[in-house]
Amino acid sequence: MSAKDIGGVAPAAWLALSGLVVVVAVPFAAIVLQAIFPELGAGSFARPFSLLSQTLGDVRLLRMTGNTVLLGLCVVIASALLAIPLGVARALYRIPLAPVWDVLLLVPFMIPPYIATLGWIMTLQPRGYTEQLFGFNLTPVLFSLFGMTLVMTFNTFPVVYFAVSRTVEAIGLRYSDVGRVFGATPARAFWRITLPLSAPGLAASLLLVFAAAIEEYGTPAALGRRAGFEVLVTGIDTRVGDWPIDLPGAATLSLVLVIMSLAAFLLQRWILTRRSYQTVGGKPQNAEKRELGRLTVPVMLMFGIVAFLSTGVPMLAILGTALSGTISGGLALDNLTLRHFADVFGNSAGALGALTNSLTLGLATAVLTGLIGVVAAYVVVKTRIRGRALIDIMTVLPNALPGIVVAVGLILAWNMPGLPFTPYNTGFILLLAYCCILLPQTARYATAAFLQIGDNLEAAARVAGASGAVAFQRILLPLVFPSLASAMLLVFALASRELVASIVVAPVGMQTISTFIWRQFEQGSVGLGMAMAFVTIILTTLLPLLFLMLLRRGGLVRE
Amino acid sequence: MLKSIKGLVFGAASTLLLAGVAHADITVYTAGPQSLIDKLAEGFTGQSGIKVNVFQATTGKIMARIEAEAANPAVDVLISASWETATDFAKRGWLVSYTSPNAEKVPDFLKNETAVAQGVSALGIAWNTKSGTPKPAEWSDRAKPEFRDLVNIPDPAQSGSSFELTAALAGQDDFALFKSLKNNGAIIAGANAEALNPVLQGAKAAVFGAVDYITFGNKAKGESIDVIFPESGTVIAPRPVMILNWSKNQDEAKKFVDYMLSDEGQKLVAGTYLMPARSDIPADRPLISDLKLIDYDAAAIQGKRKEILQQISDIFGAN
After folding, report:
1. Going by DSSP bridges, is the β-strand pair B151-153/B236-243 parallel, antiparallel, or unpaired?
2. Which single residue of A93, A316, B175, B264 has CA 20 to 30 Å from A215?
3. DSSP secondary-structure letter at A559?
């Protein structure tokens, strides 16, 4: 990075910092203090460190930690294997029906993991949907590390797919064409030039996948426990949900998780700072894509199979259950009913209120995290302000914080007696929780995007007389906006379905989509829960797409 | 463009504010069914004009919230799914002594100075009637070959009532029954709802120790499922209602407890297939007087909770 001193970035830095303090530092500090002072919840600082050694000395901790890392790595590797070929093909070649595949590969991300897992269980268990339709079940495969990896990968690989297709597309064929001119084979040019250049986006997305995998609760709880595979998050949940409550223990275990994700982050940073990845310069890009030619059949097959497994199977299972009058009735015509959907739209048990709450919260979270994320990323990548490393770390801290621990941290911080104003017990506490959990998404994507923009562009604007703010708004922001917009879209989807933090921290009398679904499952109304899940997935997929389309028409996003 | 974003943000902000600022007179945390508390709150508000704000979750999640809120607690009335909560909170001195005039018909073992049951659930065998297995009558029937690999046990570490049943039965024969269940392929399968779901679809034939009211509810919806209470006895889980001593609205809270124990309130409880706490309210299901209860020392097994859970997880090989 060239040395420079841009005036006018100080306000931006302060904005990012104050946002980060409220959203990240406050709950995080509460969690650290809780780990140290066991009686913090009662407002007492007595007996510091008294429980720390007991938690860290637990013999099961080592196994849980090992399992967590193992599961995280499995999901990362599987996601990479699945997503990179698809993403590269999408970026470099003219794929028939490309937008349709994009939507189909976006859907798995919109399916809440616990719902997808339940869908897979109901499909593959004995007398499940595959046995009812085709006469076989795959129970032993499902309840294993392999099954967990598969289900979680189908859920998270879209992150990698979209990151790879965007970054490789931005790089285009120009650089590898240079390689070709100098005699490299197409494969060699890809491995030595295109793939390394797309490293920022790839590494950032794999980091998010790793963090999501080690922090995921639903799938390991449903599939892993039966296989005796306990991870840190299920351990944390036991400590929080099992009387007597062990909040200090839960806080300590989540700090272990945070350290893991920080280590992954530092590794990613180390990889990225070894060289420059600037590919977006002032030169015009040739956006021409190649024809698939004889690759057409295998590539289309690949897209088809992945889309069917990741979107088709869970969605069919959800729809099948939602349309069944009773579960024991199975897939039979006389068991077909629209009752559960009628219940959702008839506002049974407050379904419509829950939908409105979650969609509003999702939107607000996307806007807020987008704002904080892009400013923080700009400060970190494009300025040399002191303390920017701290900002960078703060944007990654919540990455692996389990939702339930964020919830406890927020209650500890905002429910202190004597605060002049508190968001606690209002909808704003959910907004804070979602922003904290999801900020890494926008911040990581924006950072990766800024890393690829050459400094010469901003310098040119400055030479031509633009202020720092104008250069940011007119040059940099439009260039990172495609990445930022897709990150905000993901945040919207994730926020509108967040479960674990919502259950604990939701203000009295307020339901969200996920707490609604969860309550239906708890009370045995699986059909109604699945109907709500189906409506939600369709809405959270269509709304952001519609929004992007409007933006495109407004000329804010190219393509 | 920017303007419309601003509009959206303000819209969102005002919606959130309105959602939070509803000033309620009492705050109730409940581990009971959402539909029940909704009806109770509606009926109570209609009668007294006092508004009820509700937070509903599992007992564990509610306890986590109360623990984290301890510096500045918000809850007035707590309805737990486990009597153990009432014992523990009383020991901590967190409860208000109150005996509702409507509690007269509540049997003595379902009330004490600081807590009274709202309703009672019992544990039974939830059995899929279309599973092709013979109808079980006893706990031990599930160790028979017809039930090989077809039995789910709700995780005693996650479900308070499942723990009571497990501990009570294990105390009778020193875990012999559970060892034979394990040898017959029974598995520990998550909390109550997770254990029941595979039985509904038919992947498993029976839940060993299912919470009865949820299963009765499913049966009423047309699922091919039934609840069997073994002759040898079962355990019940009274759901205690408590008023917290930090409550600033104790008079209103007492009125809420009165309403819940009134004819109207108890009929609402019966409507969810829970057994009403009052013995003079009828319900469309077997009542406590119809059930044989296992005789065991509840305080003693709670004291040995860790050891019992450890033994169970040793037998079933998980954790």
Report:
1. unpaired
2. A316
3. -
> Residue B118: in which H helix or E strand, if any?
strand B115-128
Nearest one of A404, A405, A406, A379 to A393, comparing CA atoms:
A379
Q: Which residues fall within 8 angstroms of residue A77, CB to CB, at 6 or more apart?
A: none
pLDDT tier, A114 (very low <50, low <70, confident <90, very high otherwise):
confident
**Number of Cβ atoms within 10 Å of the Cβ of A281:** 13
The residues facing A227 across adjacent strands are none
Helix (H) or strand (E) holding B54: strand B52-56
Residue A422: both structure tokens together: 């508190």
Compare all CA atoms of chain B with the CA of A64 and give the residue at the minimum distance.
B319
Restricting to A residues 191-250, those with a Cβ less than 8 Å away from any Cβ of B are: 221-222, 225-226, 228, 230, 238, 240-245, 247
ω into residue A244 within 30 of 0, thus cis?
Answer: yes
pLDDT at position A482 over 70 = yes
Of B17, B194, B204, the CB nearest to A426: B17
Q: Is there a contact between B16 and A426 if contact means CB atoms under 8 Å apart?
A: yes
- pLDDT over 50 (residue B20): no
State the number of CA atoms in the 13 A half-sphere of A432 facing the CB. Answer: 29
Which residues from chain A sit within 8 angstroms of residue B157, using beta carbons?
A: 238, 242
Q: Letter for the amino acid at A176?
A: S
Give the CA distances from residue A258 to residues A46, A111, A377, in Å, rounded to whole numbers and listed in that order: 25, 25, 20
Q: Is A426 on the interface with B (CB under 8 A)?
A: yes
Q: Give CA–CA dist A536/A368, Å, rounded.
A: 22
Closest-CA residue of chain A to B85: A243
Contact residues on chain A for B318, CB-CB shorter than 8 A: 225-226, 228, 230
B109: which residues sit within 8 A by CB, 6+ positions away?
none
Nearest to B34 among A349, A431, A556 (CB): A349
Higher pLDDT residue, A494 or B276?
A: B276
Q: Given an 8 Å threshold on Cβ–Cβ distance, is A330 in contact with B202?
A: yes
Chain A residues within an 8 Å CB radius of B128:
328
pLDDT value, residue A72: 93
d(CA B256, CA A496): 34
Contacts of A23 by beta carbon, 8 Å cutoff, 6+ apart: A368, A372, A432, A435, A436, A439
CA distance B293 to chain A (A): 25
How far, in Å, CA of A223 to CA of A142, rounded?
A: 7
3-state secondary structure of A453: strand
CB contact under 8 A, B71 and A417: yes
**Beta strand pairing status for B77-79 and B236-243?**
antiparallel
Asked if A455 contacts A465 with a C-beta cutoff of 8 angstroms, the reply is no
Q: Which among A144, A154, A157 has a CA at the least distance from the CA of A222? A: A144
Q: What is the pLDDT of residues B239-291, one digit of tens each?
A: 999 999 999 999 999 999 999 999 999 999 999 999 999 999 999 898 988 89
Residues of A in contact with B67 (CB under 8 A): 41, 245, 247
Angle between helical axes of A477-495 and A427-451 (0-180°, round to 10)? 140
ipTM above 0.85, yes or no: no
Least confident range from A190-194, A221-225, A256-260, B211-215: namely A190-194
Q: What is the pTM of this model?
A: 0.85
Q: Is B2 on the interface with A (CB under 8 A)?
A: no
Instruction: Give the one of B9, B69, B194 whose C-beta lies nearest to A367's C-beta.
Output: B9
Q: Which of A240, A360, A521 sits opposite B16 (nearest CB)?
A: A360
| E strand map for B218-309 | 225-228, 236-243, 275-276
pLDDT band at A279 (very low <50, low <70, confident <90, very high): low
Give me the pLDDT at residue A328, please: 85
Chain A contact present for B15, CB below 8 A: yes
- Per-residue confidence band for B319, with pLDDT thresholds at 50, 70 and 90: very low
